[in-house]
Amino acid sequence: MATEIERKFLVADASVVQGLSGVRMGQGYIADNGMWVRVRIAGDTGWLTLKGPSKGMSRAEFEYQIPLEDAQVLLAEHCAHGSLCKVRYIVPVDGFDFEVDVFEGPLAGLVTAEIELDTEDVQPPHPAWLGAEVTQDLRYSNSQLAKTRALPSPALLADAAG
């Protein structure tokens, strides 16, 4: 079984992506029956992903490349559980790659960083531009953000920036 081990943080200083090239992504959620079914378009590539429930930092994840045309139809017509747009940047730090997502549309102003780890006990670097860790806060999961299409409390975002 494929397992994703990931930690998620708010970004306190979004200037970390200045000068970097990012990839625009649209993604939506087709179904949730205890396992989320997500479609994503990243650049000119389509993906279908199944994600199991989180257990700490870990969860089952199965990801498959699909034809772009199929992903476009799924995203446009079948995302009953919401969708979102963002630009993803890869920011390398001490041998780790942080995926920094700058959200657009109704989620504009939210910037998060995710890092995938080999095991849960790996301690990644914590550069100064990272804010609060939100790994366990479901309000910051992409599926919840897509569903509500609203930022969590502005006070929480301000706390993360401080």
From TrEMBL:
<feature type="active site" description="Proton acceptor">
    <location>
        <position position="29"/>
    </location>
</feature>
<protein>
    <submittedName>
        <fullName>CYTH domain-containing protein</fullName>
    </submittedName>
</protein>
<dbReference type="InterPro" id="IPR033469">
    <property type="entry name" value="CYTH-like_dom_sf"/>
</dbReference>
<dbReference type="InterPro" id="IPR023577">
    <property type="entry name" value="CYTH_domain"/>
</dbReference>
<feature type="domain" description="CYTH">
    <location>
        <begin position="2"/>
        <end position="147"/>
    </location>
</feature>
<dbReference type="Pfam" id="PF01928">
    <property type="entry name" value="CYTH"/>
</dbReference>
<dbReference type="InterPro" id="IPR012042">
    <property type="entry name" value="NeuTTM/CthTTM-like"/>
</dbReference>
